Amino acid sequence: MTPRTKTYLLHGGLFLITLITTTLSGAEWIYGRLFIPIEGMKTLGWTEFVAGFQFSVPFLAILTVHEFGHYFVARANQVRVTLPYYIPLWIGVGQSIGTLGAFIRIKDFINSRQKYFDIGIAGPLAGFVLALVVLWYGFTHLPPPEFIFTIHPEYQKWGLDYAQYAYRNLPPGTETVGVGDNLLFHFFKTYVADPARLPHPNDMMHYPFVLAGYLALFFTSLNLIPIGQLDGGHILYALIGRERFRWVAPALFIVFAFYAGLGVFKPTDFAVPTDEAFYNQLGYFGLYVLFLSFAFSRISENRTTTWLITLSVVATQLLFSWLQPEWEGYSGFLIFVFVLGRFLGIYHPDTERDEPLNWQRKLLGWLALIVFALCFSPKPFLIS
Description:
Helix content is about 60%, strand content about 5%. It has 14 helices and four strands. A two-stranded antiparallel ribbon has the order 1-2. A two-stranded antiparallel ribbon has the order 3-4. It is globular and about 65 Å long.
């Protein structure tokens, strides 16, 4: 077997495994149940697995178009890259989306600001176009509202007004998950979908094309965050140049980290009745500060500067929470803040050729940042 054949088998095998894991996860979201037996819950079978392709096929199609957008433009720029590596992940005992995404590995040093731009922007824009098609199909082909009773027959006793009863007075320990909102998703819900068929936000997960499209927007927005070596970082670096990017990127990262952690701790959290509870809360707070310091560890080579930034962010978060207790960020972003700050990096590698972009590329670059604004959801998932 030749090395090239082994390579094709590896990429193809990872794709097939990811197709299976996303199909499993899609079925679990559609039916609100699992494949692995859990006491008191009916398990899913082959029929439900086949239905899961309604999620996995459009979702993986968007992901594949995104990655091959990078791949073909890299090849056109004579940059050697690998085929996409798909990362399967199915939890089995809890609901997931079946994958951690995909990536291509660049095998050459990119010495051109323009090449970084071309390769970086191709993936998100290509995937975004297909995501629009999937969302349009999902919202124009919604089933009748009674469809929800096939998933939750227990709602039928309340009729189509089930939401005002089903999500009130839930038993202790019950968790509901809903999708958030962004400008584009709001547009589809308001102007494309039939209002009579539009599901409750907590039930959007049961509609596979809608879920696949929403997740595509969510991951597009993450990719287009204009920091470091994310696709958005490549785009902004090429648009504004290395000198400006060196101070814009860390400033954006600090704002992102501030928003993610806003409201995680509030001054009122320390007003507890016992000393033991106070010290426990203080310990959790100390771990949070340490967590942020690790996330900021690569923002400067000077440790004192890192700690000053960390403590300034935490102090400002506490001040905002004291002045406006109802203002809260989205703590789910904190893990991405950590990965971005600690591993992916905040800054962009310098390029030997720092040529400015032509007006056509500048127009595409600002368009991509508008796409980021349209896709970004301040609170992408509503867990209660």
